[in-house]
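My convention is simple: the sequence line spells out the residues, with the fold written below as integer tokens. I include a record here:
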Amino acid sequence: MIKTMWKKITSQDVDVSNSTVVPPVDK
């Protein structure tokens, strides 16, 4: 359970960072 949660957090963390950098660059 802990491993799954950890993996989910890492995936979300990357998605958020990428999403934040994508909008400004695209605009």
